[in-house]
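[audit] Reproducing an earlier prediction to check determinism. Same input, same settings, fresh worker. If the tokens differ from the archived copy the diff job will pick it up downstream; this log only records the rerun itself.
[audit] input (352 residues):
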Amino acid sequence: MAEATIGDQIVHLAGMPTWIKRFASVALGISGRSTLAEIWPNLCVTTVGGVNPRPYHRDLNRLILGAPDTSPRLLHSEVYNATEGFFAMQIDEGEMALIPDVATFYEFAPLQDAQSGNFSRAVPLEGVGIDQEYALILSNPNGLWRYLIGDTVRFTATRPHRLQVSGRINQSLNMTGEELLVANTDAAIGAVCQALGLSLADYLVIALKLEGPDENACHLWLVEVEGGAYGYGDSELAGRIAAGLDRELLAYHDYAKSRQMGAHSGAAFSLSPPVVILLPPGSFYRWLQLRFGEALSTQSKVPRLTEDREMVGELLRSLPADVATTWAQLVSPRHRQAITALLTAKSQGGGV
């Protein structure tokens, strides 16, 4: 696609930000230019969906304009679409507005109810509340009848109905009561990358139980970033990212409560500080290629939060051998034992 469009007048890029970034890298490599604006001077709009775009805005600014700061010459917009339909779009600088008149009857079930298969308290659009997590349910003339799409949304206003896509029903972390959603981890990693001058490629988080006399758990973050002079064995940077993530996530009550008892000593079954492993450039893309093969497409994406130990083990096994040697030297024996166990883990669900 990059080769076919180098000579065209491109004004608008649309897609998942991870794939837009990959497209941009290929286009820059082919053209020898340093920014997309040098290739396509009239490029002025990006429209993204599929994942939270906020952690990627500065990266897109840099790739298109050459600087990470927001510019009036480049407009970023967000949409909420899926295989089942087109549900919301950004109409101004605020959150996306739900599109009510697309022959779809919307219902919204409290997230915890949906996770347990209980939809008795689902409400229509006029019954939603602000700042509550809902699972989206669809009925439409296409044949969907009370279809659970799998996404979670949070309304920020009701006149008009504005919402954020906060994650997936099967993508949350709650091993010790921390109740983290994708929206929480997206915001945290975005803030940390901005503070450290890093460009986020992708990330994945899994909760691990740490064996020992003081049983507790931790979140393992597999992170691929760009920018700055670092290597994937940079323990100092990994530690700074981990500390920053912990600091950002402590703003969420349930996470802070889970961390309270184990914040310093790791005592009791509570949440210890997060552990970050930096992956070499291209790790997630190569894993997606292995996972999807010829079915790999622009809709293929890395799950943010997972309980699928087999899937994470598959990712770890796809890394070069020296990466495993490197991270084994950077973590404590308890963490190393838990991470090593992932390499032979059997599936427990919660995949892509």
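[audit] rerun output stored. Observation attached for the diff report: The radius of gyration is 21 Å.
[audit] end
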